[in-house]
Amino acid sequence: MKEQEKKYIEKLMGNYGEKTPSKLDELKALDKKAKRGANVFAYIFGIVGSLVLGFGMCVAMEVIIAEYMIAGIIIGCLGLLMVSVNYSIYNKLLIKGKNKYAGQILELSNSILNN
User: Fold this and answer.
1) 70: how many CB neighbours lie within 10 A of its CB?
2) Which of helix, strand or coil describes residue 20?
3) For 47, 53, 58, 95, which has the most beta carbons within 10 A of its beta carbon?
4) Residues in Cβ contact with 38 at an 8 Å cutoff, skipping those fewer than 6 apart
């Protein structure tokens, strides 16, 4: 059997064999978990803010609803405000998530580095 075939077979065995998560895998999972809430909020809030802004622009330009320009400007400004504050809220939620899991992440990081 050729060396290349052996490597291929070992690779296949690794793909189908039972995997035990290492400490590094646990560390990556904790990092993702710490950031997940902030990311989900930022995407959803940003999309909603963009849609509100777009709707307000359409109403202000009288594309959708005629004779409601002032309401469209107000709705557009509300959407603009939502989009503008999204990053600030994201940063606060990210810091909160990192602080929540900081102890576990630091403990696991130290145990990996010390071994």
Assistant:
1) 10
2) coil
3) 53
4) 90, 91, 93, 94, 96, 97
Predicted model pTM: 0.77
How large is the angle between the packed helices 23-60 and 69-114, nearest 10 degrees? Answer: 170
The whole-number mean pLDDT for each consecutive block of 10 residues of the chain, a chain of 115 residues, reads 86 81 90 96 98 96 89 96 97 96 93 87
Phi-psi region of 67 (alpha: psi -120 to 50; beta: other; left: phi over 0): left
Spatial separation of the C-alpha atoms in residues 64 and 84, rounded to whole Å:
25
In order, the DSSP letters of 27-72 are: HHHHHHHHHHHHHHHHHHHHHHHHHHHHHHHHHHTTSSSTT-HHHH
